[in-house]
Hints:
By secondary structure, this protein is α/β, with parallel strands linked by helices.
Amino acid sequence: MSGAGGGKGTKMTRMLEGAGDIVRTHRLRKEFEDLVAVDDLDLKVGPGLLYGMIGPNGSGKTTAIKMLVGLLRPTAGKAYVLGEKVPIVDNISRIGYMPQEMAIYADLTVHENLELFSRLYSMDRELFEKRERELLKVIDLSDRRDALVSQLSGGMKHRTSLACALMHDPEVVFLDEPTVGVDPELRVGFWKYFADLKARGKTVIMTTHYMDEAVRCDLVGMMRLGRLIGEGTPKELMAMTSTSDLESAFMTMARKVGT
Length: 259
Ligand SMILES: Nc1ncnc2c1ncn2[C@@H]1O[C@H](COP(=O)(O)OP(=O)(O)OP(=O)(O)O)[C@@H](O)[C@H]1O
Ligand SMILES: [Mg+2]
């Protein structure tokens, strides 16, 4: 759908597209019995971009991401991450993934969880310690480093999970609702960090329900009933729908495509 906006925005999308592919899908599809969770999804994300997937509950965002990271087998279609067909094997250490559900160990401390992830990626001790200090600052948990995860608040657990996904400094990171339950002040800090990742050429693919976050993404993909109903820069999406905010843009787009 990108390119339908005309004018300046279209040029912007072409430039972004021209950057090459970190993620590419062709009619990627996932069916759960008679439910089509992801319906022939065509995605193309270049390097150094922040791609935000938005859409209501059950629109297929998590299912799409799980297929990209190799946790779910597609029913049909193809997907490539870093040029390798999924499920990727060779490039697995170049990707990071923060699931929507908690995927860290409650009976380990924050430090032990981070250390475990560093071991999974065979990081040397010095690098691990440096990354740990840096990430604990980002998630503002330096003073809770030795606390058991089971004793942390929900938001703190979520923040620890983000740090685990980023520990090995992956080239592309899939973040499924990374800021949910995180207080506004820390969300600002997270966004500074995402900007820093981008500045270092990393690619971030995230899902969010917060429109103030989606508007900060380079490209936004609008999902509804498993389908990508709109894609473009936030400005393009608003221009295409003659709206001034992404929420209205989404609703207008949904009406346009008749879903
Ligand atoms: N393992 C599964 N078995 C059966 N149905 C599933 C399974 N996982 C997801 N679904 C269904 O697929 C659809 C898409 O779910 P998905 O979790 O991808 O949505 P989402 O966009 O991530 O939603 P949310 O914003 O709530 O996280 C939903 O109808 C959901 O019930
Ligand atoms: Mg989800």
